[in-house]
Amino acid sequence: MSLLAAMSSSMDDRPDLVRVDDRVLSRSRLQGLATAVADDLRGLDRVAVEATPTMETVVGVVGALRAGAAVVPVPPDAGPREREHILRDSAAQALLAPVGAAVDGSPGSGAGLPVVPVDLRRESAGTHPEPAPERTALILYTSGTTGAPKGALLSRAAIATCLDGLADAWAWTPDDLLVHGLPLFHVHGLVLGVLGPLRIGGRLHHVGRPRPERYAAAGGTLCFGVPTIWGRIAAAPAAARALRRARLLVSGSAALPTAVFDGLAGLTGHRVVERYGMTETLITVSARADGPRRPGAVGVPLPGVRTRIVDEQGHDLPSDGTAMGELLVAGPTLFDGYLNRPDADAASRTADGWFRTGDVATVGPDGWHRIVGRASTDLIKSGGYRIGAGEVEEALLAHPGVREAAVVGLPHPDLGQQVTAYVVGDGVTGPELVDFVARQLSVHKRPREVRLVDALPRNALGKVQKKRLLDG
């Protein structure tokens, strides 16, 4: 079966299959435009794409996949050093860019690569054989705690398996209209948000900048967002109420605060579906459309996916909903390794082939997963206790004067680490918040220090960059 099965085989030539902002393409026109790009790329193995939230990106990615090339999305906000690293490390042979786009001669701009224009005026009726399932479809660059970003190799089979699993979990059908405003260089926005409807069927409306009123006006049945987006929608009651006509709201890429979950439930009538995944694993765990949704929990493994939690020595921990350990994942959605980094690839896997996510989780007796956070930043060892940063953050966010909160463990000469909170709030004081948390949680989990800040550092998907807090 073709990776983009619905686009390739559907006889329904929908006039509005894909909409990006106010630009619309039918299925047949998208096929023709993408085939023209594929014709230009014939014989190339790896192609970089300027991954702006535009129709040219959609056409370019689809065209490269039809040609059998591995797609290397380049974030539009990448600085010169990161951009140069991605283009050189991936060994991309060409750069797809909108027709007429200027590529200057600055370092890392892509001037050393032939630029293949994505021209939305040029179609082709040519044919291209379907590449083998094991062929690399995407090389997505992901940053760790040290060193330059690493390129994760994702096969066509892994992507297809992930999307089919989500179709099962979310009852995703060709009748759905997917609405989102996510970046197109990550798993969430590109794999789920673009390749998903082109494989499963249904229409896509990318709203451009993800403003609440744009989500409300789009009339989607299936809506994707990250916590930052959902928080803004929850704070815009009129827009939120318009989403009552949707079938499913899905949140990912970071933990959704309970207050936002509850606020959306009251305004939209929907309990948000949360799910979990990484660049290296794609989506592996999710709540289901036909099952319960629990704030702060991300559901059960998708079909074919296996998970376990282990302690620092690699010993299995019980699925009792309390034991916290590193989450390991195995299954058909895993990546094929890091490009040019056998050392990093070896370090990311156990001897028996499980992928080490680096995330700390608990698993309940019923298989429901709760992500505590990153092992490196969110599992705090203070005075002999193991404290999950997420639990303390949720307690802080329950205070009416707290808008945002991030908790980390800073070095402490006696405790090893001290629980330290960074808070964006209105009219609150540090001692007040310390006492507030101590009244909700065990006393040892209270912040030893609260630092009031104007904003928390976040990446493009709204995740708090805790390493920047730890580095001071």
TrEMBL record:
Domain of life: Bacteria
Domain AMP-binding enzyme C-terminal: 391-463
Entries under Pfam families matching the protein: AMP-binding (PF00501), AMP-binding_C (PF13193)
PROSITE patterns, per database record: AMP_BINDING
Ranges in a coiled coil: none
InterPro entries attached to this UniProt entry: AMP-bd_C (IPR025110), AMP-bd_C_sf (IPR045851), AMP-binding_CS (IPR020845), AMP-dep_synth/lig_dom (IPR000873), ANL_N_sf (IPR042099)
PANTHER family reported for this sequence: ACYL-COA SYNTHETASE, ACYL-COA SYNTHETASE FAMILY MEMBER 3
Family: Belongs to the ATP-dependent AMP-binding enzyme family.
Protein's name in the database: Acyl-CoA synthetase
Organism: Micromonospora antibiotica
